[in-house]
Design goal:
alpha+beta; OB fold (Dihydrolipoamide Acetyltransferase, E2P); 2 domains; elongated
Amino acid sequence: MNRCPAAACSRRTTLQRLLLGASLAAIGLASTAQTSVRQFPQTALRGELVVTAAPAILLDGKADRLSPGARIRGTQNTVLMSNTLIGQHLVVNYTREAAGMVHDVWVLTPAEAAMPRKRAGD
C-alpha cells in the first residue's frame, strides 16, 4: 500500500533535491574560502616556532616566551592550545606585545609560507 499521494511525493523529492544541491554548493564555497591567503599585520615577523613547555618556546632556535593571553591560530584560523603543539616545528608569523613577549601567532599554510616576510634581525 502506497501512503504517499503522487503529488506529495513529487514535492518531497523536489525539496530533497534542492536541499542537496544547496548543501553541495555551500561545501564548494567553504572549500574555496579556505584556500585564500590571510592578511597579517604589517608588524608581523616570520619565524620557526617550537613549543617546548608552554609558555616557554623556541623561536628561530632561541629561547622565548608566550605572553599571558597569547593566541596561536592554526591554518584554518582556529585558536590552538599551545600544549597541543609541543615539539612541532611550525613556520609562523608572529607579533610581540609591549613587554617583548610573543603575543599573536599564525601557523602558516604552504602558500602563506612561500610569501616573503621580514624576519627578526633583518
